[in-house]
Design goal:
heterodimer, A: about 150 residues, mainly alpha, about 0% strand, B: mainly alpha
Chain lengths: ~150, ~200
């Protein structure tokens, strides 16, 4: 990895919320600084509540940097694991050689897979194929994701 | 192909219905810089992309935007549940209600229905990725304006999450543009369009 694309900045003082730029760049195209390899990361619940895994990219509007308070329940725990897998997956699209990120991606993908199976066996299927395991057809059971609670229509 | 997961990307639990908020948050469902347009833009642009990184980023972000559409729809749905006619009568939600009752319909806050005219798929690597950078900024500022107008913390938690995703997506599209540019003509990045010109033509005199 060179310094322009995802490597670390040559300046020892370059902070985590800064990226790398080419030393000499062709004219007439836009440039966004490349996020440095192995950036700082939040734990999964903090990542979900902030909307990003990366403190360096957390740039809120009119708000303090601390994320919103999320309820603590099995669904939110699963959502937090899936969010890290999604965020790392997009990061790896542009940083495929960041070995530490890939190791973390594998760890979180395994945790997410286990958490999803545990959630589905207790609360019902999240995907159609999971609806095939179990004694009866549970795909139609409440709640649907967009409902505030069951039987919300008066 | 796509497989549905019966859950949201981020929890949406709006305790207090509020048709006034719903009347403008619907813009991020079907407005000019909303999640439907974002998803259609990225998932359409990826076919012309010659480079793996761009195919990956457009597929992954386009798919995530489908999940954001569902979240915005869930916010609108929960804000408009269990309303009485009196609550709607004197609210800015009334014009929407006339046409759609409390169904979720892709429209801008102005009432203009969703249109593909607000997105582009040009078949040109640099033009498409530059459009995507702009699109993320336009969605980000729409969420800023929603945060200015809303004082419901249940709504703002969700809007804050969606807004932050725009910042991260902007970063990834910028990195993607750099990776693509490096594979193009080093002397003149506009010499050909690698999405169309399979055998670069000779220079014209």
């Amino acid at each position: 990895m060179n310094n322009e694309n995802g490597g670390s900045c040559p300046l020892p003082s370059c902070p985590d919320n800064y990226g790398t730029m080419p030393a000499c760049a062709g004219l007439a195209v836009p440039y966004v600084p490349f996020q440095q390899d192995n950036p700082k990361k939040y734990a999964q619940s903090e990542a979900l509540s902030n909307g990003t895994l990366f403190p360096g990219l957390n740039l809120p509007f009119h708000l303090k940097t601390e994320g919103s308070a999320l309820p603590s329940n099995p669904l939110v725990e699963l959502q937090a694991l899936e969010f890290v897998v999604l965020e790392l997956g997009i990061y790896l699209d542009t940083h495929p050689d960041d070995a530490e990120a890939f190791t973390l991606f594998k760890q979180y993908a395994a945790m997410e897979k286990a958490a999803k199976a545990a959630y589905e066996s207790k609360f019902g299927p999240l995907t159609k194929s999971a609806a095939a395991s179990g004694d009866g057809y549970r795909w139609l059971q409440e709640p649907w994701p967009w409902n505030f609670q069951q039987n919300e229509v008066k | 192909m796509f497989i549905y997961e019966k859950k949201l990307q981020f929890p949406v639990k709006i305790a207090t219905p509020n048709p006034k908020l719903a009347a403008f948050i619907i813009s991020q469902y079907g407005g000019p810089d909303g999640e439907l347009g974002a998803s259609m833009r990225y998932l359409s642009q990826r076919y012309a992309m010659p480079y793996a990184e761009a195919k990956g980023v457009l597929t992954d972000i386009g798919t995530e935007e489908l999940g954001h559409m569902e979240m915005v729809a869930a916010v609108v749905h929960q804000l408009t549940r269990n309303l009485s006619v009196d609550e709607i009568k004197n609210s800015p939600f009334a014009p929407y209600f006339v046409d759609h009752t409390t169904g979720v319909y892709p429209t801008a806050a102005s009432g203009f229905p969703w249109t593909a005219a607000s997105i582009q798929s040009t078949g040109d690597v640099i033009a498409d990725l530059t459009e995507d950078l702009a699109a993320e900024q336009k969605a980000r500022l729409t969420y800023d304006n929603i945060l200015r107008l809303s004082d419901d913390p249940d709504v703002n938690n969700v809007i804050r999450f969606l807004r932050e995703r725009e910042v991260v997506h902007f970063q990834r599209f910028g990195e993607c543009l750099r990776l693509c540019k490096e594979k193009m003509d080093a002397k003149n990045v506009y010499f050909t369009n690698p999405a169309f010109d399979k055998n670069p033509p000779a220079e014209k005199g």
